[in-house]
Amino acid sequence: MADTFTTRVVDVTTGSSQAVHDLTEACASFLREVARGRDGLLNVFVPHATAGVAVIETGSGSDDDLLAALGDLLPADDRWRHRHGSPGHGRDHVLPAFVAPHATFPVIGGRLELGTWQSVVLVDTNVDNVNRRVRLSFLGG
Length: 141
Description:
Elements: E1 4-13, E2 19-22, H1 24-34, E3 40-45, E4 51-56, H2 62-73, H3 90-94, E5 102-108, E6 111-112, E7 119-124, E8 131-140
Antiparallel strand pairs: 1-8, 2-7, 3-5, 3-8, 4-7, 5-6
């Protein structure tokens, strides 16, 4: 049974355009402080109805490819019944059904266990909300 649970909120400014924001260093920094060499799980949760958490390669164009794919799948136009906010904002409320608002990762020896090219990212297509909160929670023994 795990004997440690620690949680913290990280504030992220995504700006006024859709964004893929890399959270990997924030996760690693949090774990250096709280995991202290222990094994466990890191949960990353975005308490917003219009954002999600994903694992992708960043810096090689994949983040832009993800936003382009989401734009194709969920166009920002007037088809959406949810109509407040900027044009097409209804698609932002559908996003979490495709990019979940949470992800859980293994922590081994106090370190986030990701593949070589994997990064933890916040996916935010909502241009009406530039400030986001991300909850990081470590459960370990």
